[in-house]
Design brief:
Elements: H1 11-20, H2 23-32, H3 38-46, H4 60-67, H5 71-82, H6 90-102, H7 106-118, H8 124-131, H9 133-149, H10 158-161, H11 165-178, H12 183-187
């Protein structure tokens, strides 16, 4: 019998740890897997359970780490994303699907691209991470158009949208080139 360094959490303890974003939930999955926790983890991927969303960092990378080795959970997240509605936190699920896509899941990549083509800005960081410069320019274009439509709107800057400094520099250079001819880019 294998001895585990941490005790197994009950479903209630796991749920609390997961909603709190605690490492014990992550360690539990690493040690014991996701058996019996499917619905709890899927719910966390589909709904932002953070206590204070304004103060807490985004959890998509952490959630990806929980589901990455569970094909059934990954498939369920992608399927839920394809038919996501107002019930689900669309930004949360788009970013989790984005992590799946960035890490090579082709079905997630296709779903994210289809979603991005027909919807708002949910998943903007993931689509940039997935498709690079062209996606970043399109994100800025859409943000700029929203600023034209509503000057009181606020959006985070490129430092938030693009972690990769090299890509950020390429995007800035391209924006400078395009700005004189595109009002939405000038606005951003």
């Amino acid at each position: 019998m294998q001895k585990h360094p941490v005790p197994r959490l009950t479903p209630q303890e796991f749920t609390k740890a997961l909603h709190d974003g605690r490492g014990s939930a992550f360690i539990h999955v690493q040690e014991y897997g996701t058996d019996g926790l499917f619905d709890i983890i899927l719910d966390a991927c589909l709904n932002n359970r953070a206590y204070d969303r304004q103060c807490e960092d985004s959890r998509e990378k952490w959630l990806y780490g929980l589901i990455a080795r569970d094909e059934k959970l990954c498939a369920a997240v992608i399927e839920a994303f394809k038919s996501a509605d107002e019930e689900h936190n669309i930004f949360q699920i788009a970013n989790v699907v984005g992590q799946l896509a960035v890490h090579g899941n082709q079905e997630a990549a296709a779903a994210l691209r289809r979603f991005w083509d027909r919807n708002d800005l949910a998943g903007e960081i993931a689509i940039i991470e997935l498709d690079g410069l062209p996606a970043a320019i399109e994100v800025v274009r859409r943000l700029g158009q929203q600023l034209i439509d509503d000057p009181d709107e606020y959006f985070d800057g490129l430092d938030f949208l693009i972690e990769d400094e090299t890509l950020r520099g390429q995007v800035l250079a391209e924006l400078v080139r395009l700005a004189p001819h595109e009002p939405a880019i000038q606005e951003r």
